[in-house]
Design brief:
The chain is built from eight helices and 15 strands. By secondary structure, it is an alpha+beta fold.
Amino acid sequence: MGPAPIITLTTDFGLADHYVGVTKGVIASIYPEARTVDISHEVRPYCVAEGAFRIAQAYRYFPAATVHLVVIDPGVGGSRRPIAALAGGHYFVGPDNGVFSQVFEKETPLVRQVDVARYGLQPLSRTFHGRDLFAPTAAWLAKGGLFEEIGKLISDPQTLPATSPVEVEPGHWQGRVLNIDRFGNLVTSFEAARFGILSGFRLSVGQLDVRRLAGSYAESPGEEPFLIEGSSGYLEVSINQQSAAQRAGALIGQLAELWVGAEANKA
């Protein structure tokens, strides 16, 4: 017999309260052999877009059939649907609020609405579905439950705006800030494989204008902002040992504009 399946956890719960612990306790009660792996519990509260980025960057590094439990759920207790999805050989469980958008951009999903009466703990809290609904569903899937039995198929899962940059005019692209890591690096939606070799460019985000490309942080020891290819495969705005996000006054979802070639000199 091989190792037990993995359940990953990505939440905005933080670690000061009991929320993460009791979520793992529910999983252990249903499937004691499950292996739980924390991706992050420090997603900014209510920031669905940040959660969408983190799970999209993490899932593909886990074995097939891993169950990814993601709970950033500002609509808990309201009309948003609980869902489970099968995409790219992985399972995803969480609220239908767009938190799986970036996964669904990469993979073609099958999505089911979770049967609350069947899989939810009773009584079901109106404020903590991570414990009472999503954790039991994730544990049941990891234990070998059939995805087909989760609930009815749905064809209209909620999605956030697409992350792919748009060319608004020749040589002028508009993208977004996908993430701000703890070092203050601004992860943009400009894919390095597509935009990383630039003969001339200008990138504007918030209060920063960036015209320098670096291969490593050590190449830019001063206070000048620069672009670098990050580990997620996107161009990142960085300042060596400083927060580019603070200097830019930028937030997740903020517009980032890129001019390339001759257009960079006109901008």
